[in-house]
Amino acid sequence: MLAKAGLLWLRPARGIEFLFLRGKLSVPCRNVHILWWGSFFSCVRNNNAVPQKQAGRELPPCCFPANLPSPVTKICKNANEDELESLMLEIQFGQASDPGRARSGNEDAMGVVAPASAQEAAARGWLFVVADGVGGQDFGDVASACVVAAMTEGFRRAAAAAPLQSLLPNLIQQASRAVVEEGLRLAGLGASGSGASGLGTAGSGMAGPGMAGQGRKMGSTVVACALRQDQMLVAHVGDSRCYQVRNGKVTLVTSDHTLVNEQRRMGLISAAEAEGSAVRNVLTRSLGLAGQVEVEVTPLALAQSDVLVLCTDGVYDRTGAAEIARIVSQKKAAQALAQELVEHAVRVDGSDNATAQVIVVHSARPTAMYRGRPYRMPTT
Fold first, then answer.
1. Are 249 and 174 in contact (CB under 8 A)?
2. Within its chain, how far is the Cα of 285 from the centroid?
3. What is the pLDDT of residue 249?
4. Minimum mean pLDDT range among 11-25, 232-246, 307-321
5. Helices (H), 233-306
6. Maximal CA-CA distance, the chain
7. How far apart are the first and last CA of the chain?
8. Is this structure's pTM higher than 0.85?
9. What are the tens digits of pLDDT across the range 319-363?
C-alpha cells in the first residue's frame, strides 16, 4: 500500500521520523526519516567586494573586469560528516577575461551570485552573467558593468523560490532600464538634474520611453544562466552566447540577435556567408537603447558532467564550437578551463575583448521542495 501511495524513503539523519506520502507529511512512524541538512555548507573563495577602477571609472563591486582575479565556487559537503548521503547540485565554476591584442580597454563584464547555504542553493540557486558593451558607442564598459550590477543585485533581493522563468527576464528588463538611466545621468539629464554619483540600479526611477536617445548612447549584450536544483534557465539579448557540452558534444543554447543571423534564418544567405559577413556583429537587439527589450529564454535540464560556457563574441568568433567543446571537456579545474579558453581565443584572433565563464556540473539529481526544504526525488 505504501508503494502505491508513492512513499519517499530518506536516509535516517537526526532521529526525526515522518512519513512522506503523496507529497504530504503524515503522522510520525518508524523507519522513515526526513533528511537533516546540518552538514551541508557552501565553500566560497572570493575577493572582498570593493569598487574597482577601470579607465578612470568606478565599476560595481559585483563585476569582474579583465584585470581582476576570478573566484572559483564549489558547493560541497563536509568531509567530517557522514549523515548527508548526496547533494542536490554540485558545481564548480571558473571565469576569465582578456582585453585582447587590439584594444587597451575591456568592455566586457561578468558576475556571479553563489548561494551561501544548502537552503539558499535549493530555494534561490546560482546566477551567472556575462555582458559585452556595444562597440562604437559611449561608455561600453560602464554599460556592461551596469547590466551585471543590476542583475546580480536584483537576484540577491529576489524572493526565495521565485520562478526562474519570470525572474530572469525581469532582471534583464531592469538591467536595460538601469543602462538607460545611467546614460541620462552621464549626460546630466537624470531626475535630480545634478548627475548623482553611482551606477543606475534596478530600483531607481524608470526613464521615459523617449528619453533613451537624449543621454549617452550606451548599450550592452547579456547572457545569463540561472541554476537551481537540477534545472537551468538561460536568458539572453544580443550575440553573447551559451554553450552546453554533454559527453563531448556541444549544443549552442542561444541564438544570436544579429542582422546576418536573421538573414540566415529567412534563407537570404547561407551559414557560410553569414560566418564571413563583414556585418556579422551588427545587433538587432541590445540592452540600453530603450527601456524595454525582447528577451529570449531557454529552459534546460542539467545532467552530471555537463559543462556550460557563457562567453562574448571575442571568444567564439574565431574559435569554433568543436574547439570550445574540446577545451572545456578536459579533466581540469573549471578556472583552468576558462583561462585556457580565453587565452586560445586571444591567440587565434585577439581583435576583441574575450570573456568566458565555465560551469562544470559534478552532480545534479532530481529534487523537490516541501515547506521550504529540499528533498531528493526517488529514481527508477
1. no
2. 19
3. 95
4. 11-25
5. 259-265, 271-276
6. 72
7. 18
8. no
9. 999 999 999 999 999 999 999 999 999 999 999 999 999 999 998
Q: Which residues, in sequence order, are CB contacts of 211 under 8 Å at separation 6+?
A: 180, 184, 189
Q: Is the dihedral of CA 220, 291, 199, 194 positive or negative?
A: positive
Q: What is the Cα–Cα distance from 223 to 149, expressed in whole angstroms?
A: 14
The DSSP output letter for 210 is T
Report residue 10: phi and psi, to 5°: -125, 145
Query: Which residues 6+ apart lie within 8 Å of 51 measured at CB?
Result: 58, 59, 60, 61
Q: Distance between CA 37 and CA 194 in Å, rounded?
A: 51
Nearest by Cα to 160 from 125, 127, 128, 123: 123
Which domains does the chain carry? 1-36 (no CATH), 37-376 (3.60.40.10)
Q: How far apart are CA 106 and CA 87, in angstroms?
A: 38
- What are the helix and strand counts (H, E) for the chain? 9, 18
**Any idea which residue has 524608470 for its cell?**
206
Adjacency order of strands within the sheet including 108-113: 108-113, 126-133, 220-228, 231-237, 296-301
* Grid cell listed for 146: 551596469
Identify the weakest region by mean pLDDT among 119-123, 316-320, 324-328: 119-123
Task: Give the integer Cα–Cα distance in Å for 94 and 100.
Answer: 19
